[in-house]
Structures are given as structure tokens and as C-alpha cells.
Design brief:
Elements: E1 15-19, E2 25-29, H1 34-38, E3 47-52, E4 55-57, E5 67-75, E6 86-88, E7 96-97
Parallel strand pairs: 1-5
Antiparallel strand pairs: 1-2, 3-4, 3-5, 5-6, 6-7
Amino acid sequence: MSEKLRVQIVQPRSDVEVHLPHGRVLSGPRGAQVGEFLKAVEFPAPVVAAIINDDLHELTYPIDMDARVEPVIHVRSRRRADLSPLVELPAGKRRLPISFQKPS
């Protein structure tokens, strides 16, 4: 027979885990900004935001509990005629053009 699962109430850990795509896991202090976690990994372009548990957030968003995190990186178009910056979303999601406008 299989062992009975043991579930119990515990105090929160001081560290949290950030689960990145492709199985990487980062550990850091509870409340640290997602951008601090992502600095531990090298990306092919600057990280400009993060999708945390399926919601888009700025890099200053605090990680208060274990989370799934997908970095959003900024890429430039290689075509000279297309000068609009692009945001590269994680695999399986499409690129979105970003327009930078001065506030009025």
C-alpha cells in the first residue's frame, strides 16, 4: 500500500522560488523584486518586464511567494524600414510592437 500523505500547517520560508521556463529555478529572499531574480540569469537582450503567474508586471514587482516567471525581453527590428521597438514574449507568444510617445 502507498504511504499516507502528510499535510501540515507550517510557517512561511524566508526564501521563495522563481520557476523559469525550461526548468530553471531561482531562490531568493521573500519580497525581492522580480528584476533582482532575473539578474542572476543571462538573456540575449535586455529584460523589460516579466510575466508572473500569467500576469504582466514591471521588474519592480515583489515576489512574495513561489511563482512562475517568464522574462519579457526587448529586441530591435533588423529591418531599417521598421524602426518600432518590439517586445519578445516567451516562446509560443507573439511579438508586440511598442510605441513610445511623449506624454502631452
